[in-house]
Structure formats: structure tokens, C-alpha cells
Design goal:
The protein is an alpha/beta fold and 145 residues long. The protein has a single domain, classed as 3-Layer(aba) Sandwich (Rossmann fold). The protein contains five helices and five strands.
């Protein structure tokens, strides 16, 4: 069985900490790699730049992608992932604080598998992330087996 890795693309340190804590609370013993902007996300997936020699699985099992990112925004990251045959099937969950209809629609139009708004309440946030982790890592079967 292949190792399952989550790629968390999040520039907010507090949201990163809450996400990692929520995943640990449900005992998901998977690797979670964190990048903090859109360019790093693309470099990670395509093993370029600072990630040219990274170890681990070729592709993450799921990408948890924020929309409002430095350097390259989340929608552009999503568009580039979907445009490349190497990454077009990687599940991407938009995890954002945006409640804008245009962000939700744009995410799906660009190929997001899911759009989840970050709850403002810590307990709700932790429960939401835990459910995401369990679904994408333990329940869902990725296209590459």
C-alpha cells in the first residue's frame, strides 16, 4: 500500500496549527506536508525549485488548498494542477474562509473536488478538518490505487 500524504497549502500559521492538531486528534498517522504559498505548492507537486529532491510519494493523496495565497493564488494553483497530466487527477479540496459565491463557483469550474468553508469556531473547524482527513485518507479510494 502506498504511503498517503496530505499537502496542506496554507499561509495562515494559526489555521495551519489548527488543521494539524485536528488531523492528529483523529489519529491519522499520515504525513502532512505544509507549504505556505501557491508557488511552493506547484514546486512541491512537480518536484521543482526547493522541492526538486524531496522524498516521499510522487503525488499527495489530497491537497488541502487555501484560495488567498501569496505569490500565486489558489485558483491559479488549481488551474495549473488540472492542466498538467501528472497532477490532473489529484484530489483538491478548497479549504478557505471565503464565503464568496464567485470563489465557490470558480473553484468547481477549475476542477476542485470539494469546496469547504473554514468555520470560525475552533471546535467546528477541528471537526470539519477531521472529517475531511478521514474521508480523503481512509474512505476515498484515489485514482491510482
Amino acid at each position: 500500500m502506498k504511503a498517503k500524504t496530505i499537502l496542506l497549502v496554507e499561509d495562515n500559521a494559526q489555521d495551519e496549527m489548527l488543521t494539524l492538531r485536528a488531523l492528529r486528534r483523529v489519529n491519522l498517522a499520515n504525513q502532512v506536508d505544509v507549504v505556505r504559498d501557491g508557488q511552493q505548492a506547484l514546486d512541491y507537486v512537480f518536484r521543482e525549485g526547493e522541492f526538486a529532491t524531496r522524498e516521499g510519494p510522487d503525488l499527495p493523496t489530497v491537497v488541502l488548498l487555501d484560495l488567498n495565497l501569496p505569490r500565486i493564488g489558489g485558483l491559479e494553483v488549481l488551474e495549473r494542477l488540472r492542466a498538467d497530466p501528472r497532477s490532473r487527477l489529484v484530489p483538491v479540496v478548497i479549504l478557505t474562509s471565503s464565503d464568496e459565491e464567485r470563489d465557490r463557483l470558480g473553484s468547481y469550474e477549475h476542477g476542485a473536488n470539494s469546496f469547504v468553508r473554514k468555520p470560525l469556531d475552533f471546535t467546528e473547524f477541528a471537526e470539519t478538518v477531521a472529517r475531511l482527513g478521514v474521508y480523503w485518507l481512509a474512505t476515498n479510494e484515489p485514482p491510482w490505487g
